[in-house]
Amino acid sequence: MKINKLLLLLLPGLLMLSCGKPTNPESIQPEDLSGGYKIVKVFPTFGYAQDVVKKDSLLYIAQGQGGLMIVSVADPVNPKTISPATDDARGYSTKVAVKDSVAYLAAGTFGITVIDAADPYLPVVTVSNLNMKPAREMHIMGNYMFTAISEQGIKIADISYPSEPDVRGGISTTGYAFGLTTTADSNYLIAACGEMGLSVYDISDFQEGFGVYHRIGWCDTPGSAEAIALSETNSLAFLACGTAGLQIIDYSDTTNIHIVGSFDNGGYAKDLIYRNNRIYMTNELSGLQIIDVSDVTNPTLAGVLDSEYALGLDMDDNYIYMTDEVEGLIVIKIPEH
Questions:
Q1: Most CB contacts within 10 A, which of 63, 235, 238, 268?
Q2: Per residue in 140-187, pLDDT tens?
Q3: Is the pLDDT score of 8 beyond 50?
Q4: What Å distances lie between residue 78 and 7, 40, 73, 75, 126, CA to CA?
Q5: Predicted pLDDT of residue 10
Q6: Which run of H or of E encompasses 18?
Q7: What CA–CA distance (Å, rounded) separates 87 from 68?
Q8: Strands (E), 80-233
Q9: How far apart (Å, rounded) are the C-alpha atoms in residues 167 and 224?
Q10: How many CB atoms lie within 10 A of CB 261?
Q11: Which residues, 6+ apart, have CB-to-CB distance to 207 below 8 Å?
Q12: Sign of torsion, CA 62 131 165 146?
């Protein structure tokens, strides 16, 4: 009887000891997945930032109905607005390409807008609603611009005289053309064609844009191929494939183009850059992913940075410049390795 009473007296203390010290939720630190990459500036844009190109110390930003915004990143941590918007740009600008002091905006059903930015403080629209539509993406090769125009394939324009682009031939693609690039030797045009994956076209006999360009290779991919980057040293194409993430494709043998690796960490893969065995890829609601592709058969996550709605990006040796439709321009410091 006495033993039972003693146990009753000791039981509350024993229970407290067994429970231990309660955990303070504020003391729990989230795991750092940044890989050393650090956001150093979030810079609001006047419109909905869609895409960005860096040239010298200037950023050219496609910002939806706001057309083109020009920002100085002479000091990347403290960007300065040079020109907030271009009122005469029609449509909703989603992509930008730059050659010399001229910017080209893709505006869907409003085609291509050409902007003379020789004076970056006062850019002037010189061509509006150029008949390359619905314009999704542009790629410039010398004095020629290739434009992905969705179900209409690809069109080619001579831009030797930027104020008078000369629309020439075209390529009929299987699937919707979204992203495109050319190889350094100008022999191949490689296109990301939505649900139809990747297509390779022979443009070696270019004929100033009037030639006939045959598809010489194709590879189906999961998801929807939106954008493309190349590693030409080993004939690899990296595709941002929407819900299927990153797909890595070997095109060294155009008769046997095939997937050699993939990586999907969530989100909707939208745009990407390849540099020094790493892929930098925007993923809309899942922000920016940095993927190590040293072993293309086994890509690994090297870093991730959250943002509201990551879309476009460009980079230099020290910084990544990313457009976010909600947050604007995000400047990211690259770690020293």
A1: 63
A2: 999 999 999 999 999 999 999 999 999 999 999 999 999 999 999 999
A3: no
A4: 68, 9, 7, 5, 31
A5: 47
A6: helix 2-19
A7: 9
A8: 80-83, 95-99, 102-106, 112-116, 124-130, 137-141, 144-148, 154-158, 166-171, 179-182, 188-192, 198-202, 215-219, 227-231
A9: 28
A10: 17
A11: none
A12: positive
Q: What span, in angstroms and rounded, lies between the C-alpha atoms of 261 and 60?
A: 33
For 199, other C-beta atoms within 10 Å of its C-beta total 25
**How many residues are listed for the chain in this entry?**
337
Question: Is the Cβ–Cβ distance between 114 and 96 less than 8 Å?
Answer: no
Give me the residue label for tokens 């706001």. 66
In the predicted model, is pLDDT for residue 21 greater than 50?
no
User: What is the spatial distance between Cα 122 and Cα 320, in angstroms, rounded to a whole number?
Assistant: 26
Domains of the chain: 33-333 (2.130.10.10)
Residue 33 banded pLDDT, cuts 50, 70, 90: confident
Cα 149 from Cα 310, distance rounded (Å): 22
pLDDT band, residue 6 (cuts 50/70/90) = very low
Report yes or no: 304 and 287 within 8 Å, Cβ to Cβ.
yes
Cα–Cα nearest to 303, from 288, 321, 323, 320: 288
Mean pLDDT on 236-247: 98
